[in-house]
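Technical annex B. To support the medicinal chemistry partners, we prepared a structural model of the target in complex with FE2/S2 (inorganic) cluster, based solely on the information shown next.
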Amino acid sequence: MSFVFSDENLKKAKEHIAKYPKNKQASAVLPLLDLAQRQCGGWLPQSALEGVAKFLDMPFIRVLEIASFYSMFNLKPVGALHVQICGTTPCWLRGAEELKKACTEHLKIEIGETTNDQMFTLSEVECLGACINAPMVQINDDYHENLSPEGLIEILEVMKKGKTKEKTDVSS
Ligand code: FES
């Protein structure tokens, strides 16, 4: 199935393109990929990459190169909560390995995997720019900093309850 932006996202996409000079619409590829990813539920299927390429009049391969370079874009489905653990030196020195161990043991999955209930995906990423408060983890759009393994597990459980409630509210 081919990808098209929703009316709301189409408006936003046009606003992003308008920020750049005429015929330089390709400069808006990052925000447009972000819009497409949100519209597709947190990841970019090939149809979305093709849709963005067509929309911006760019070769598909250039869009794929960009989407596969940045860890903010997911080329396969992720869980409702995408837990991205920073493993770069400042976070590593301050306990990133312990955070990783706590998450893999608690969720019973390895880095790069998703729990069977599709609630959590675990990823390890490079520096997310919050080194001053290392170690840190990004969960969906939010940063959680100065973490201990116990504190992170508590956050995961609170967020899981919130997501479960969201699902129940939508279905009831
Ligand atoms: S090293 Fe982890 S945020 Fe910079």
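Notes passed to the chemistry partners:
The longest helix spans residues 149-171.
DSSP finds seven helices and four strands in the chain.
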